[in-house]
Amino acid sequence: GCAMRTYPPIKYVPLVGKEKEIPTTVVLVKALGDRDLNLRAQAVQVLGVLSQSRSKKMKREAAKALGVALKDHDPGIRLQAVELLGKMEDKYANRYLLSALKDTNPFIRDQVLKMLSAREVPRIQAEQQAQAEAQARAQAQAQAEAQAQAQPQTP
């Protein structure tokens, strides 16, 4: 293969002056419609990078574009999109993961649940640990107060 093949075909590069600004996600969504499986996989990979942006707008756009990838006819592309959505914050990704639960491929449906579990279990464990630590502090404070009241006060 030619080294140039690693770049998207010229038809995905916006024409200069045609529109003032074309977001990267728009170009990537267009690439998701290409017949070339490798190009679609690369577009999903780039969307995964964009999904980790600090920009809320970029995260929202990347999640929406990954939602488009969930409709790809290739299960590998859909699986890749599920895995990337699973790494995103739930407020951006869950609506698309919910639709992926209706996928015709049982492996993809199973992967949605695994990704949700991998994301939620640590959060629940952290909440439980924080609650246990708060209870331990409250008990220690109550014991300290009880000991202070039990000691005779000297005038």
Q: How would you describe the overall organization of this protein?
A:
With 155 residues, the protein is mainly α. It is 68% helix and 0% strand. The chain contains 6 helices and no strands. The protein has helices at residues 24-32, 37-50, 56-69, 75-86, 90-100, 106-150. α2 (37-50) packs antiparallel against α3 (56-69), α4 (75-86) runs antiparallel to α5 (90-100) and α4 runs parallel beside α6 (106-150). The radius of gyration is 25 Å and the shape is elongated.
Sum up the structure in keywords:
155 residues; mainly alpha
Proportion in helices: 55-70%
Derived structural class: mainly alpha
User: Whole-Å distance between the termini?
Assistant: 93 Å
Number of strands: 0
Rounded to the nearest angstrom, the radius of gyration is 25 Å
Question: What's a quick, concise take on this entry?
Answer:
The protein is an all-alpha fold and 155 residues long. The protein has helices spanning 24-32, 37-50, 56-69, 75-86, 90-100, 106-150.
Write the layout of secondary structure elements.
Layout: H1 24-32, H2 37-50, H3 56-69, H4 75-86, H5 90-100, H6 106-150
Helix pairs in contact: 1-2, 1-3, 2-3, 2-4, 3-4, 3-5, 4-5, 4-6
